[in-house]
Specification:
By secondary structure, this protein is of the alpha/beta class. It folds into 3 domains: about 5-70 and about 80-135, GMP Synthetase, Chain A, domain 3 (2-Layer Sandwich), CATH 3.30.300.160; about 180-290, Beta-Lactamase (2-Layer Sandwich); about 300-455 and about 505-540, Rossmann fold, CATH 3.40.50.300. Strands 5-4-9-10-11-6-7-8 form an 8-stranded antiparallel β-sheet. Strand 1 (about 90-95) and strand 2 form a beta hairpin. Helix 15 runs parallel beside helix 16 (about 400-410) and helix 18 packs antiparallel against helix 20. The longest helix is centred in the middle third of the chain and has 15 residues, at about 185-200.
Length: about 575
């Protein structure tokens, strides 16, 4: 909403005495301080709803109001304006008759938007005013399908030459420009990859169904539909993915795994490819591995100064075992790679055994397990120990044999990092005991166990103060005292965060650092609950408490905390 429209709103509210002068002055002052739209503040306070506000503005500026729920927009009309322009000005094309285009606008007196539309379309622009809610809904519907793929092909805004794909085996780079005219599928795949990188997607899902082909991105841990190309394009796209991943293009009955590289914006991105036969064809999932995320310190991963200081203190130990736990997708590997990157100096021999090798890091010797030929975690770790390592990363401790070798390596002068699948930090100890590791060996070797989860971070571009909904507070149960008198924030939704209100993620952690008392408890076979109680008495924050601190700092929402972590 431009300043002109804000002034119109203030003028009409005063003239019609829709709200009290006291409320209007208070909200106007809040608007001036925070930059939050006055209309948003009015809706949040419950003083007016969005439709009432829009109708008032419609009358004041003499622009017709239109509810988009009442009409069906033709997709070919929507395609006359790109999604980028639509999001920039919050507009949606509605109809075109001859040289006159009707456009729904949340701010129909924005002369810059109208001038740009005239320039782009060559049409006379007839604006109607719509609610922001209607705009968002229409944008999600009309810009989420094949039209966006077609726009990619024809738009000058997207530079297909800016991403170059290379296979893992042959290190030659495929110039997209040279092949685009002869093979449009190559151009399409590269542009889908480029869009995924721009949106910070961690995974790309290519999903075939009986009459549909869907492509989804996982962004900040949540899957979002990106495109639905015609079903007949599925085979060509899948074949292209197999070619660049050096996979068998004729094999359709068995799962396959591969990888390839892409160069984008001077960054090298690795893609790990997994193919799985399904009822309607092979589903492909690409894991996007951006090495640039490893070249920053722990604080840049979303760690608090206190958490980063704890890790920096622990990694100074000459030997011992540091474990990070959590479910798949909780950022365990990223945390460990970031730590190794900080420790990667010329006077250290750092070696890893992984399944698979996710990030290839210069200066670190990395080995991938191959169980089918006998190279397991246990066998690989035995051989690795003969290579004079200083620091070891074991991708995951999955069985008693690997656990036993890892513990003994940590006791013989090596600093060892690994991951486990447990829910809590204290649960790591009982998990090792359940594997058959002697308690005295655990007590002697373990430096720390860290449970980790990832919370979506509020988008800094559209962050605004808000009230926590009563139904969310009800879900807190007995934890109300943690957030007493806390100012809450949310993301309003903008183009930067794709109107989700979140951009990026931040880690919530529960760090259990061993000391003499905790070591004795392990030797005495104490339960994980007892160990956790003592650790918390000594200052350990639980995952839930740490996540609430993130909420109290204004970095995430209470809804996100409760989505990811229980308050037990």
């Amino acid at each position: 909403m431009t300043t002109s429209l804000e002034n119109c709103l203030i003028r009409v509210l005063k003239a019609k005495h829709t709200i009290s002068d006291q409320d209007l002055n208070r909200l106007t002052q809040q608007h001036n301080l925070s930059g939050t739209k006055l209309s948003s503040l009015l809706v949040e306070e419950g003083l007016m709803n969005e439709k009432e506000l829009t109708l008032l503005l419609s009358e004041e500026i003499e622009v017709p109001f239109l509810s988009l729920n009442l009409i069906k927009i033709q997709p070919d009309v929507v395609q006359l304006i790109s999604r980028r322009i639509s999001e920039q000005y919050e507009i949606i094309p509605i109809a075109k008759i001859g040289k006159v285009m009707t456009v729904g606008m949340t701010d129909p007196i924005n002369v810059f938007a109208i001038d740009d539309l005239k320039e782009l379309t060559g049409c006379v622009i007839r604006p109607v005013i719509i609610t922001f809610k209607d705009y968002q809904a229409a944008c999600d519907v009309y810009y989420s399908d094949t039209a966006r793929i077609e726009e990619f092909f024809e738009s000058d805004e997207v530079d297909a030459d800016s991403i170059q794909v290379s296979t893992e085996v042959a290190d030659e780079q495929i110039e997209v420009k040279e092949l685009a005219d002869q093979a449009p599928v190559i151009r399409m795949v590269n542009l889908i990859l480029q869009e995924a990188i721009k949106r910070r997607a961690s995974d790309i899902h290519f999903e075939p169904y009986q009459n549909k082909f869907r492509i989804r991105y996982r962004i900040d841990g949540v899957l979002r539909e990106a495109f639905t190309p015609p079903r007949q394009m599925y085979g060509s796209i899948l074949a292209r993915l197999k070619i660049v991943s050096d996979l068998d293009i004729t094999e359709k009955r068995l799962p396959q795994d591969g990888r390839f590289k892409a160069q984008f914006d001077k960054r090298q991105i690795d893609f790990r490819v997994s193919l799985l036969p399904t009822y309607h064809g092979e589903k492909a999932v690409l894991r996007v591995l951006d090495k640039s995320s490893l070249s920053v310190g722990l604080s840049h991963l979303g760690f608090t100064d206190e958490t980063a200081d704890k890790f920096n203190e622990m990694i100074k130990r000459p030997y011992g075992m540091i474990l990070v736990t959590g479910p798949t997708g909780s950022g365990k590997s990223t945390t460990l790679y970031a730590i190794l990157n900080e420790m990667n100096t010329n006077d250290r021999n750092i070696m890893t055994i992984e399944d698979p090798v996710e990030y290839q890091v210069k200066g670190i010797t990395q080995t991938q397990v191959h169980p089918e030929i006998g190279l397991t975690f246990a066998n690989g770790l035995r051989s690795l120990l003969r290579q004079s390592p200083d620091i070891i990363l074991v991708g995951e401790i999955r069985d008693v044999e690997t656990a036993d070798i890892a513990v003994k390596a940590a006791l013989t002068g090596h600093l060892l990092f690994s991951t486990l699948h447990t829910n809590t930090a204290a649960g790591t100890i009982t998990r090792l005991m359940d594997m058959g590791i002697e308690p005295f060996l655990i007590a002697s070797s373990l430096i720390s166990a860290t449970a980790q989860r990832l919370l979506r971070r509020i988008c800094p571009n559209c962050r605004e103060a808000t009230e926590v909904p009563s139904e969310v507070l009800t879900r807190l149960d007995k934890a109300h005292h943690y957030i007493k008198d806390v100012k809450a924030y949310r993301g309003r939704g903008c183009t930067e965060c794709n109107h989700t209100g979140y951009r990026g993620r931040i880690a919530a952690m529960e760090i259990l650092v061993m000391d003499d008392e905790l070591q004795q408890m392990v030797i005495d076979h104490k339960s994980s609950d007892d160990i956790e109680k003592v650790a918390r008495r000594k200052g350990m924050h639980s995952l839930f408490e740490n996540a609430l601190e993130t909420f109290k700092a204004g970095n995430t929402t209470l809804e996100e905390v409760l989505r990811v972590i229980t308050s037990d």
